[in-house]
Every structure is written in structure tokens, then in C-alpha cells.
């Protein structure tokens, strides 16, 4: 058997490695048009910012190493230009010599990855200080430009993972950074209220953010000196980073009538097979599907690419692995903040038809007396089944382990009540006695069964609709005076029972405190006293005030 792989980054090399582990009988050949193989795209911003000292740390393996370790022939700077699926042949050009090569295959794997999207204003010309962040040559070019020219101002287009990582690294290197985003928020895969926490941090650090803005004109010939925007502003700049997303490299696939899915990536089955016999697709060129909805999903991440490659390599050599779908779990560091999400967002879940309970859980990552720092967990559950559907977390420490626990729970279809019963590790330097994950499960389960929650967005909407509501601030008069929910009356928790007689039990009532715990205690008192409909404001006044800031 002759296995040919087109592409040699995360997915392609995983195909070759797994296939070789399964059999010594196959010939395995990999072609890649780039100079480097098996490199870390995700590490590029940290090389630019010199957290990673040498480029070799991002390129730990080369073709010689692969040949020695796996007996796999990898040809770099070789571009596959044509596939003949009838003859099972490929046409390849050696980019160094121009020589045309014909090769054959028994199994062909498309691991052609994705190409960076170039905004319209940058498509008609090349500038020496405009960079994309996609491969090792990009990394070398950006860092060498900074070292040689000492730029003072950088403009970044795109506020996804790469855009935010580059903003952090360039700012830390002493540059004045402007971040331009076409959409209404940074981090489009988050809900707006959680993304706003990231935006606020960036602004507080001194990064200028322009939302709902595009570049309409580039000023400068060989070097960009300024950008004109859709807001009729001219931004002076010394360098530009294009981080506006990627699109799958499907040209070769289309040539042989491989089906392209709804996401724009190649449609594959659970064995990574395309609709064309003996042709597979993996990594950033292939679409996945949601573990929750079962619908096609495109989330190009190195972790998913490695998984897909391993599955294809196993299937081709007779194994039984299958792709089980993804949750789109992701995490990024933005200065001191870690930002993570898994599963469906609130918006996605509602669009999918779920009736939701939505929780904002604000808790320290470990014991307060050992320096615990707040995490904010937004979690959603389906009201009819209780199943956890998604979570988003912002915080400083412990975000990664909490999102991984929640991703695992969602993968195995856990309900809100199941989270509370998890036997998670506890010691004061690492967690609180009720870990934030356990508390998330407890509070969501309560919301589903007895103690309903209301989000700031829902409260504001009902107030604007002039619905009759009693809003009770359960904090001290001093806290109430500093900031409070609009229209709220101040009844501290200690006075709840005696003051309850002055309230109308038939009117929907909202209780709140600073973050949610005392509000829940007041909610229980009022429900036990016969109030018909009592909600606790999720995330308390702290979350409510952030929501108002976002809506300004």
C-alpha cells in the first residue's frame, strides 16, 4: 500500500506517524509546499514577543528526523498541482528546481490546511511591513522586522485568538497597539457579555480597540504608513498584522469533485473519508461536527487536527478509530486573564431551540486566605433535560482546569446535578471546598428545579417593557448607595423576614447581592414565605453593572 499525504503540519504528520505505528508494510510519502514541517502555529506570537527564544523550539522535527523515526519520506517545497482520481495519480512540482513529478497512491490524504484571509484593502499590493501569522517564515519575518526597524506603532486587524495574542506580545514589547475588528465584539466565539470582559481588560491596559470597523485604504508604497478606516479615521502605523481568520485550502479537493460541506471545508464521515474513493481529509481543510447538535462545525485548531490525522492514519491501515465530534473548546491568555469556552454559547443554544437556564458564577479559584482570585463562569443548561450545554470562563488562575472538567462533563452528557457530585481535588492552595465547578452544578441545578435565575439582560428587558417587578437589594445600605440595580429597594438580608410583610407576594420579585450568594439566600426566604415568583439576579450587582457598561 502506498499512502500519500498532502500537507505536513499537525494533521499530515499525525496521519503518517499513526499509519507507520500500525504497519511496516506501507510506503508513506508526504508532500508540502512549505519549507517547514510539524511546526506550532499557535506558538508564533510568543516567538515574536520573545517568550520563545529560538525558532527551533517551534520546529522540533524535520524531514530527516521523520525518515529516521518513522521511515516516512517527506518532501518539502513540493506543491501538488493536480490529482487524477481515475488513475490514482498526482502531479507535483519541485518548487526549488521546477521539475514536474508524477506519483501514484492507494490512499490519498488531503491535509492542505487553511490559508489566511486577506482583507480587500490589502489584496492588490505587497508591503514590507504587513504580515500574516500562519507559518514559520511569517514568524521569522515579523521578529526580524521588529529587531531591524524598532517600530513604535502596530495595527492588528482581527480580534480572535491570534489577534489578541499578537496584541499582548507587541504591547509587552513596548509598541502602541490598535486593534481593528469588523464585528461588534472581540472573540466572536464567545457571548458578548463574556467577550466584553476581555475588551475591558484590553482597554484598561492601553490597547485601542475599534469595533465594527474595516480598513478602506492603505497609505504608503513599499511601507504602510497609515490606514484609513470605514469610520473616516486615519491611523498612523509602523507595521500591520493581518489576523482576520482563515479559510480551508480546498482547491485540490474541488478539482476532483470532493464534496465541500456547509462550513466551506471538506465534508468527511467519522472515518475522515470524503465522498471520493480512497481520498481522505483531515485538519484545517476538513469540517468536524458538534458533539451536542450533530451539525457540521469548523473550528481549525491544532488539537483537532492532530486527532483527525491519527484517526485517518488508523483507518487507512485497518484500524477502527472514528471521529466523535468536537465542542470547539478553546483557551487564550490575554495579559493576566485566561479566557476559555466549550460547547454552545447562549446565542447558539437559543438558535438551536433550547430553553435555557443561564448562570454567572463568580468565585475565587482557591481559598481567599491563600490569595484566591475571582473566576467568572458562565454556564448554560437545557431546562427540559438538565444537560450542560456550554460554558465560558474568564479569570487569572485555574481557568484551564475548570474548562477541561466542564468539557469532559459535556462530552459525557452530564446534567447540572452531576457536576455537584464530581469528586474533584481539594486543598486550599488549589481550590475552594466547593470548587467553582461544583458550585456551578449546584446553582444551575437549583435554578432548574426551584430557584430560577434571571440574567442582567433579561432583567433590563423586562424593566424596559414596564413589567411589574419588585427588585430587592440584599446588601448593606453602604453598598446600595455606591451602586445598585435601577429601581431596586434596599432590604438587607437580616431584615428580609420582617420586611417581607410589606411586599406583594403576587408580583414577580428579583433578589440580588454583590455576586449572587446572599441574593440566593434572600430568594429562599421569600419562596418559603409564599412569594409566587422569585428570581435571583445571576452574578449579582457586579455582573449587572458590567452589562450596563457593555450596553453604553
TrEMBL record:
The keyword Flavoprotein applies. Keywords: FAD, Flavoprotein, Oxidoreductase, Redox-active center. Residues 465-552 form the Rhodanese domain. Pfam families: Pyr_redox_2, Pyr_redox_dim, Rhodanese. It comes from the Bacteria. InterPro entries: FAD-bd_OxRdtase, FAD/NAD-bd_sf, FAD/NAD-binding_dom, FAD/NAD-linked_Rdtase_dimer_sf, Pyr_nucl-diS_OxRdtase_dimer, Rhodanese-like_dom, Rhodanese-like_dom_sf. Its cofactor is FAD. GO terms for molecular function: oxidoreductase activity. Gene3D superfamilies: FAD/NAD(P)-binding domain, Rhodanese-like domain. Belongs to the class-III pyridine nucleotide-disulfide oxidoreductase family. This is Dehydrogenase. It comes from Sporolactobacillus laevolacticus DSM 442.
Amino acid at each position: 500500500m502506498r499512502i500519500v499525504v498532502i500537507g505536513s503540519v499537525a494533521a499530515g504528520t499525525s496521519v503518517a506517524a499513526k499509519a507507520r505505528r500500525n504497519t511496516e508494510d506501507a510506503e508513506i510519502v508526504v508532500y508540502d509546499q512549505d519549507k517547514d514541517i510539524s511546526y506550532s502555529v499557535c506558538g508564533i506570537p510568543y516567538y515574536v514577543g520573545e517568550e520563545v527564544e529560538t525558532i527551533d523550539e517551534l520546529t522540533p522535527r524535520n524531514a530527516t528526523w521523520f525518515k529516521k523515526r518513522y521511515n516516512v519520506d517527506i518532501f518539502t517545497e513540493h506543491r501538488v498541482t493536480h490529482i487524477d482520481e481515475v488513475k490514482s495519480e498526482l502531479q507535483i512540482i519541485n518548487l526549488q528546481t521546477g521539475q514536474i513529478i508524477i506519483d501514484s497512491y492507494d490512499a490519498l490524504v488531503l491535509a492542505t490546511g487553511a490559508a489566511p484571509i486577506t482583507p480587500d484593502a490589502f489584496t492588490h499590493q505587497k508591503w514590507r511591513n504587513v504580515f500574516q501569522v500562519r507559518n514559520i517564515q511569517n514568524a521569522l519575518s515579523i521578529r526580524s522586522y521588529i529587531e531591524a526597524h524598532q517600530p513604535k506603532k502596530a495595527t492588528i486587524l482581527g480580534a480572535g485568538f491570534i489577534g489578541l495574542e499578537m496584541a499582548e506580545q507587541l504591547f509587552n514589547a513596548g509598541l502602541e497597539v490598535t486593534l481593528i475588528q469588523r464585528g461588534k465584539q472581540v472573540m466572536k466565539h464567545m457571548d458578548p457579555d463574556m467577550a466584553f470582559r476581555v475588551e475591558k481588560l484590553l482597554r484598561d491596559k492601553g490597547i485601542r480597540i475599534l469595533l465594527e470597523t474595516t480598513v478602506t485604504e492603505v497609505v504608503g508604497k513599499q511601507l504602510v504608513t497609515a490606514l484609513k478606516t470605514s469610520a473616516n479615521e486615519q491611523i498612523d502605523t509602523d507595521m500591520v498584522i493581518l489576523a482576520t481568520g482563515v479559510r480551508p485550502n480546498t482547491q485540490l479537493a474541488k478539482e476532483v469533485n470532493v464534496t465541500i460541506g456547509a462550513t466551506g471545508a471538506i465534508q468527511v464521515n467519522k472515518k475522515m473519508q470524503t465522498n471520493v474513493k480512497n481520498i481522505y481529509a483531515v485538519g484545517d481543510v476538513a469540517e468536524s461536527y458538534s458533539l451536542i447538535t450533530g451539525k457540521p462545525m469548523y473550528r481549525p485548531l491544532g488539537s483537532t487536527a492532530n486527532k483527525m490525522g491519527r484517526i485517518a492514519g488508523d483507518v487507512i491501515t485497518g484500524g477502527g478509530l472514528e471521529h466523535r465530534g468536537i465542542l470547539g473548546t478553546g483557551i487564550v491568555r490575554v495579559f493576566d486573564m485566561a479566557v476559555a469556552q466549550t460547547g454552545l454559547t447562549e446565542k447558539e443554544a437559543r438558535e438551536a431551540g433550547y430553553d435555557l437556564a443561564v448562570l454567572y458564577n463568580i468565585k475565587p479559584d482557591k481559598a481567599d486566605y491563600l490569595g484566591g482570585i475571582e473566576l467568572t463562569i458562565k454556564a448554560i443548561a437545557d431546562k427540559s433535560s438538565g444537560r450542560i450545554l456550554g460554558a465560558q470562563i474568564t479569570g487569572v488562575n485555574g481557568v484551564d482546569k475548570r474548562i477541561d472538567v466542564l468539557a469532559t462533563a459535556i462530552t459525557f452528557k452530564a446534567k447540572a446535578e452531576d457536576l455537584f457530585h464530581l469528586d474533584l481535588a481539594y486543598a486550599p492552595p488549589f481550590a475552594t471546598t466547593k470548587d467553582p465547578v461544583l458550585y456551578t452544578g449546584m446553582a444551575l441545578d437549583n435554578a432548574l428545579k426551584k430557584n430560577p435565575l434571571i440574567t442582567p439582560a433579561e432583567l433590563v428587558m423586562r424593566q424596559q417593557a414596564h413589567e411589574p417587578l419588585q427588585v430587592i437589594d440584599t446588601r448593606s445600605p453602604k453598598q446600595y448607595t455606591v451602586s445598585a440595580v435601577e429601581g431596586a429597594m434596599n432590604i438587607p438580608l437580616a431584615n428580609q423576614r420582617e420586611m417581607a410583610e410589606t411586599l406583594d407576594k403576587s408580583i414577580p420579585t428579583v433578589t440580588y447581592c454583590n455576586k449572587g450568594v446572599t441574593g440566593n439566600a434572600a430568594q429562599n426566604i421569600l419562596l418559603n414565605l409564599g412569594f409566587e415568583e422569585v428570581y435571583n439576579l445571576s452574578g449579582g450587582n457586579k455582573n449587572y453593572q458590567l452589562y450596563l457598561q457593555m450596553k453604553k
